[in-house]
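User: tokens in, sequence out, please.
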């Protein structure tokens, strides 16, 4: 009977502690909801969550001089059902890190997050991996950072990771991610290294990553804003370890992989300012080394801006794998960011 009066006292104490913490730092609540009506030629109509539905918290606490403590906790969910993203991904799929940051020395985080390569290469997909039209998997050679995680949760993220981003000097930023082999059977230590350059209308990216399973991945990308359009391009290569077939895992349909054969890919796309918003067009292609036929994807889309945080979009995409089902998909969706 002594426990019940303690409950409101405990809750009140938590709010008081949060208020005290806010005086020396800041905590931001943010998120995004994205749902669309979709149609796939092999499935029919549906109401689907698109990529990136999230609810997150990020905080910074000034420690004095040039040093700050940071954290980020971001959950992913499917707003059409209210459940976790793809049912069995980790609750805090997006990110769960704590770290230190300095304007002079960069930022260090520990926990679960996107790898250095996967974070920066996502800027070269005009659809940002979010709609049926995303060309990311095709133009990145089906590369997954950790194939062992459930429901594709490791497509771009590592758990138990160490993540470092340098200060941006002369437009250049260097990012490094490491993953200890505490729970991994791979004979090679996973590592991710990215170089990101931004200068006025021009950007460039180069990266190397060794996955949690030991496959090697290399990518080079760039973009230029001509005013009338922003042109993006990328080339990549994945060298899977023998016995690892990324296509069979992701279901994109190259058929059985030749033992240890590399996957080569490219993507060319553009973002065009249009009345009320912007248009997007993209073409991506991949193939196994030694094969003549390619897997191709072509996408087209339009985004109408309702405000700085909300927009309506529609897309159409055609995927044509060498093996497997050829598919045409369309969507009509709405996004609210906060």
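Assistant: Sequence out:
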């Amino acid at each position: 009977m002594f426990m019940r009066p303690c409950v409101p006292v405990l809750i009140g104490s938590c709010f008081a502690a949060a208020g005290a913490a806010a005086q020396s730092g800041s905590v931001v609540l943010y998120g995004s909801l994205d749902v669309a009506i979709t149609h796939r030629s092999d499935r029919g109509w549906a109401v689907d969550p698109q990529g990136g539905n999230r609810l997150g918290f990020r905080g910074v606490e000034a420690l004095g001089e040039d040093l700050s403590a940071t954290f980020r906790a971001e959950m992913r969910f499917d707003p059409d059902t209210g459940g976790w993203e793809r049912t069995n991904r980790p609750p805090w799929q997006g990110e769960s890190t704590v770290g230190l940051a300095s304007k002079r020395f960069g930022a260090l985080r520990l926990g679960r997050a996107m790898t250095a390569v996967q974070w920066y290469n996502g800027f070269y997909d005009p659809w940002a991996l979010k709609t049926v039209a995303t060309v990311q998997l095709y133009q990145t050679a089906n590369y997954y950072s950790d194939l062992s995680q459930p429901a594709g949760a490791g497509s771009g993220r590592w758990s138990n990771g160490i993540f470092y981003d340098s200060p941006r000097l002369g437009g250049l930023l260097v990012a490094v991610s490491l993953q200890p082999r505490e729970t991994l059977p791979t004979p090679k230590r996973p590592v991710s290294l990215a170089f990101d350059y931004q200068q006025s209308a021009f950007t460039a990216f180069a990266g190397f990553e060794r996955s949690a399973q030991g496959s090697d991945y290399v990518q080079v990308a760039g973009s230029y804003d001509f005013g009338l359009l922003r042109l993006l391009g990328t080339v990549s290569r994945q060298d899977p370890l023998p016995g690892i077939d990324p296509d069979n895992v992701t279901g994109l349909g190259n058929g059985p992989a030749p033992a240890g054969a590399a996957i080569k890919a490219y993507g060319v796309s553009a973002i065009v300012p249009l009345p009320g918003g912007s248009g997007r067009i993209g073409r991506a292609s991949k193939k196994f080394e030694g094969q003549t036929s390619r897997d191709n994807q072509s996408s087209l889309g339009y985004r109408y801006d309702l405000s700085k945080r909300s927009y309506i979009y529609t897309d159409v995409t055609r995927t044509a794998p060498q093996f497997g089902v050829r598919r045409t998909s369309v969507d009509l969706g709405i996004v609210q960011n906060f």
